[in-house]
Specification:
Shape of chain A: globular
Helix content of chain B: 25-40%
Radius of gyration of chain B: 21 Å
Oligomer: heterodimer
Number of strands of chain A: 12
Largest sheet of chain A: 8 strands, mixed
Order of helices and strands of chain A: EEEHEEHEHHHHEHEHEEHHHEEH
Number of helices of chain A: 12
CATH superfamily of the domain at 1-79 and 177-186 and 208-260 and 269-306 and 314-329 in chain B: P-loop containing nucleotide triphosphate hydrolases
Strand order of the largest sheet of chain B: 6-7-8-3-9-10-12-11
Structural class of chain B: alpha/beta
CATH class of the domain at 3-40 and 52-87 and 224-260 and 268-331 in chain A: Alpha Beta
CATH architecture of the domain at 3-40 and 52-87 and 224-260 and 268-331 in chain A: 3-Layer(aba) Sandwich
Distance between the termini of chain B: 33 Å
CATH topology of the domain at 1-79 and 177-186 and 208-260 and 269-306 and 314-329 in chain B: Rossmann fold
CATH superfamily of the domain at 3-40 and 52-87 and 224-260 and 268-331 in chain A: P-loop containing nucleotide triphosphate hydrolases
Structural class of chain A: alpha/beta
CATH topology of the domain at 3-40 and 52-87 and 224-260 and 268-331 in chain A: Rossmann fold
Order of helices and strands of chain B: EEEHEEHEHHHHHEHEHEEHHEEH
Largest sheet of chain B: 8 strands, mixed
Shape of chain B: globular
Distance between the termini of chain A: 33 Å
Number of helices of chain B: 12
Strand order of the largest sheet of chain A: 6-7-8-3-9-10-12-11
Chain lengths: ~325, ~325
């Protein structure tokens, strides 16, 4: 198993001006000290609520946001902070699919033109070869060649998302960030797109960073899952392990809040009181301590270190120890 | 139990230059007193328009063209705008998906709730101000006296939705219609709002209609579920029946295509091919026939009517002659 991407200490702080005259400066700490290896061929998912930094992470890895600090190595080469020209050779390999394909497809370009653009830009095919290449790409995402002459507004939401995926595939990437790529779709269409992503992964040996808030979807598609809260990674584990034995109190609360499609499921949620604090002024120590049911004094003062509880299962929490793990399991 | 609301043969059309397009096609729905009804369907199935038509809030160019909606002995669809305005809020409360666009950004929270009370209940300003604070406390807003003085932008999404619920409850309605009120919220906040509505329904002895696309969410909320597809009710049954014995091919496919926390990782999900028809391009006969695994040529002849499923709970009804035949066999 080789790491396709090695991410170390990645941070992103946005500067803001506040006040009626824009005279107060403030910093939004959107992402702090994010470190993970993304293994070739895996699907790593990031979950968490609005403002947890999961999308920022995807943007910073691809250099779509300039990171404020830290390192991103792609196949051993540093790409964090590269300017657009230096980034260009890497852009071919590193692609992204967004939530809303309507706002990322040019309404005046036919689907065929939209798919040709990245191919020509990266010089991957001659003009003579283009139509065949476009037909192949459409076939990859389950669409017939006649769609090449259509415009985005003529397609349904699911079809537009297929085109967005085909466009990401156009330059034969190694790695795709799926940023809430299926969140806006209806249930029946969502299943189609999930299946498509699974098929393409197998066919082309793709590596995905899958960013989502729907935990059931994440459970379905991921090898490993990272849980984020207020700009920090709080837990990272193989998907099966995380859903069967969540350790971090936030992960446990998040999982218990997911509605179950079973009218007899008991309503015994570990309810989280209150709301996510502002990232303008995140709590000291562990950022979750203000809502944590098992917070201690230490949690309010010290940032918990990132540690492995079992091989491959990491958490950042002072309060959960190996001994607590059995207690947790006993409860569920 | 008595029926609080009875919708019969409701038909809604969009006026377009090329002629009217039907978006709701002869819907029958009943809400019993004290019941929570879940209305489930995908975008464009007509679930929101059906409920908006009851209180005269349909957008321009969209009109209810046939049918009736009996509520407290009166047909809501035949009421004058003035009479409907009195029903709205005082007898039927509404909560919408996006509280930011439903709250006036330049009026303090407490004053917005008080406005409804003065208008609907004829309270004086001081009475209404006190009642507004009580309502904020009722929906679980901490420090309600302080929050009554807050502006909408000072509240988080979850708090704004609580304010919307407080406004929806201001007139002490018999029926609360909740149109995807948690779709824009994070999952832990969604859980708080769901618990709140469930609790308030019992305490205030209301009926609740909860409109959603999320089958998992509605499982823990509704007594009965109506599944809509392309402007028709395809299945209507008590909640346990829907999940234990889903009968219409569309309901079954929807449940199958739902990823769950207990599901098998990395496996392909059963999915429904194709997409729902657009308004005005509804196929003849059963609207689900083009995507249905059980479809036969006869399915395109007539729109199937809801009928009881033999051998099931008598309240379990489905609009598919093919599955009914199979149940008999």
């Amino acid at each position: 198993m080789t790491a396709l991407l090695e991410i170390r200490g990645l941070s992103k702080h946005f500067g803001l001006t506040l006040g009626a005259f824009g005279d107060r400066a403030a910093t939004v700490r959107a992402l702090d000290d994010f470190s993970v290896d993304i293994i070739e061929g895996e699907t790593l998912s990031l979950v968490g609520e609005s403002g947890c930094g999961k999308s920022t992470t995807g943007f910073c890895i691809l250099n779509l946001h300039q990171p404020s600090g830290g390192s991103v190595k792609y196949k051993g080469q540093e790409i964090a902070g590269l300017d657009e020209a230096a980034m260009r050779p890497f852009r071919r390999d590193l692609q992204i699919v967004f939530q809303d394909p309507y706002s990322t497809l040019n309404p005046r370009m036919t689907i065929g033109e939209a798919l040709s653009e990245p191919i020509l830009f990266h010089g991957l095919a001659s003009r003579a070869e283009l139509p065949a290449r476009v037909t192949d790409l459409l076939a990859d995402v389950g669409m017939t060649p006649r769609f090449a002459n259509r415009y985005p507004h003529e397609l349904s939401g699911g079809q537009r998302q297929r085109v967005a995926i085909a466009r990401a595939l156009a330059c034969q990437p190694r790695f795709i960030v799926c940023d809430e790529a299926i969140s806006a779709l209806d249930v029946s269409v969502q299943a189609q797109i999930l299946n498509l992503l699974l098929d393409l992964r197998e066919k082309y040996g793709l590596t995905y960073l899958f960013i989502a808030h729907d935990l059931a979807v994440v459970r379905h598609i991921s090898n490993r899952v990272g849980v984020m809260y207020l700009g920090r990674l709080t837990e990272l584990a193989p998907a099966g392990d995380l859903f069967a034995r969540p350790l971090h109190p936030y992960t446990r609360a998040l999982l218990s809040a997911v509605p179950k499609p079973d009218p007899r499921a008991p309503v015994n949620r570990q309810r989280l009181t209150g709301e996510v604090p502002s990232p303008l002024n995140p709590p000291a120590g562990c950022r979750f301590h203000t809502r944590c049911p098992i917070a201690r004094d230490r949690c309010r003062a010290e940032v918990p270190e990132w540690r492995a509880v079992t091989p491959g299962h990491h958490i950042a929490c002072h309060a959960v120890s190996r001994a607590d793990k059995t207690n947790w399991e006993g409860q569920s | 139990m008595t029926a609080l609301l009875e919708i019969r043969g409701l038909t809604i059309d969009i006026a377009r230059d090329e002629g009217p397009a039907r978006v709701v096609d002869g819907i029958d729905l009943t809400v019993m007193a004290g019941e929570s009804l879940g209305i489930v369907g995908e975008s464009g199935c007509g679930k929101s328009l059906t409920m908006l038509s009851l209180v005269g809030l349909l957008p321009n160019r969209i009109r209810a063209t046939a049918g009736s909606a009996m509520f407290g002995g009166k047909d809501l669809l035949k009421m004058t705008p003035g009479a409907l305005r009195r029903v709205r809020g005082s007898e039927i409360g509404f909560i919408f998906q996006d509280p930011m666009t439903s709250l006036n950004p330049v009026i303090r929270i407490g004053d917005q709730i008080a406005e409804a009370l003065i208008y609907q209940k004829g309270m004086t300003k001081p009475q209404a101000a006190i009642r507004a604070v009580e309502l904020l406390a009722l929906v679980g807003i901490p420090a309600p006296e302080d929050r009554a003085q807050a502006w909408p932008h000072e509240l988080s999404g979850g708090m704004r939705q609580r304010v919307m619920i407080a406004m929806g409850l201001a007139g002490h309605p018999k029926l609360l219609i909740a149109d995807e009120p948690t779709t824009a919220l994070d999952v832990t906040i969604q859980a708080q709002i769901v618990d709140l509505v469930r609790d308030l329904k019992t305490r205030l002895n209301m009926s609740v209609v909860w409109i959603t696309h999320d089958l998992a969410l509605i499982a823990g909320l509704a007594d009965r579920i109506a599944v809509l597809y392309a402007g028709t009710v395809v299945e209507d049954a008590p909640v346990a029946e829907i999940f234990d014995r889903p009968t219409h091919p569309y309901t079954r496919a929807l449940l199958d295509s739902l990823p769950t926390l207990a599901g098998e990782a990395m496996s392909r999900l059963p999915s429904i091919t194709g997409t729902p028809p657009e308004p005005g391009r509804r196929p003849p006969g059963c609207p689900f026939a083009p995507r249905c695994p059980l479809a036969q040529p006869a399915c395109s002849d007539a729109v199937p009517k809801l009928a009881p499923v033999p051998g099931s709970d008598p309240r379990h009804r489905v609009a598919c002659p093919i599955v009914i035949e199979r149940a008999v066999a």
